[in-house]
Amino acid sequence: MVHKVLFWSGFGIAVRFWQLGIEMRPFFNKESLWAYPFYAGVGGSFGYWLLGVENRQMKILGNRRDSLLEKRRRRAEREAENGDGEKAETAGILASPS
């Protein structure tokens, strides 16, 4: 967790260096030193938000994986109860004749 926030904080500082480089201004001017912690804070908060997004996505994917595994287990049980070892045919528009 900390490594992602630190990375994005460093990215924010790099953006500030890039901005000053484009403007051809000195990097360490006394009047503009306050901007480095600001850019680092903005980058760090973005990294923290992105970490929350990743956690939510992993939770959703985990739930989906569990539901698919449960669905496969139920289908295998249903096919085992069928007894003949063949897959049960289901009629439908997209069903292909075998």
- Runs in which pLDDT lies below 50 for 5 or more consecutive residues are none
Q: Report the β-strand fraction as a percent range.
A: under 5%
Structural class: mainly alpha
What would the principal axes of the Cα set say about the shape? rod-shaped
What is the strand tally? 0
Helix count from the secondary structure assignment: 2
Largest sheet: none
- Write the element-wise H/E pattern from the N-terminal end onward: HH
Oligomer state equals single chain
What features would you describe in this structure?
Helix 1 crosses helix 2. Helix content is 71%, strand content 0%. The two termini are 52 Å apart. The chain has 98 residues and is an all-alpha fold. The longest helix is centred in the middle third of the chain and has 48 residues, at 35-82. It is built from 2 helices and no strands. The mean pLDDT is 87. It has helices spanning 2-23, 35-82.
Considering the chains and any ligands shown, give keywords for the structure:
single chain; 98 residues; mainly alpha; 2 helices; rod-shaped
